[in-house]
Fold:
Amino acid sequence: MSSCKELTVVLPCAGDGVRMNLSYPKELFEIFPGVKLIDFSLDHIKYFADRSGVSVKVAVVIKCGKEDVFSYVKSKLSGMIVDSVTFNNKFREWPGSVFSAYERFSENNIVLLPDSFISMGENNRFTDDEGMGIIEHSLNVLERMSVVFGIKSCSEKNILKDLGALRTKGEKIDVFIDKPVDTEGLNGFWCSYGFRREIANDLYKFLIKNVEKERVEIKDQKFFPPGYFNVYEYFDLGTSESVEHFRSNIDPD
Structure:
């Protein structure tokens, strides 16, 4: 277990959710009876908090009209410090949603996407064969490195071209391209990430340049090399099609 005493988990919920074509926030979409989309991320937070002595703060980044998302998260994470953060329009895209929570950052920070499903093990959604969960792995790596990504190994072009693709080499990530046109040599994509507060600004600049298709080398960044750990399974649940695929492949129990 990491020696970390405090961390912030950022939930970037400022997206418009147009791909789901809903009249309400996609985070509150009921994917199974009694299970909302954002619950998959909240479950990882609760699992970690219940078995660690770490003080967990949660920052929910929203835009006007998504106040119900914050209220829901606060009700599900009773006993934790849960803050509402308004998306800062000085920043851009999903990296800007995360960076909008700058004033809430702790020494260690972990980003969980509210429209995704991550399983760490074949038989246990929360831990891998070593008994380690997403947050535990992230904190352990952040003791040695300033940035960490939870990654899913993958070499399928049709999957990599729509995600934050990367290449791992040994114990580090040496190539990182958001939604690449050319996937040659890439062998995975990121599912979650974490960072130390002092590197937050540099990481935001790197990520936003990637999203906006300005090619920047991860090898040239102050935080190079970022560390990583592997997740067992990942589903991006941002579209109706991906939700139906997920439902057909996952047992809700």
Q: What stands out?
A: Residues 122 and 232 are 7 Å apart (CA to CA). The chain has a mean pLDDT of 94.
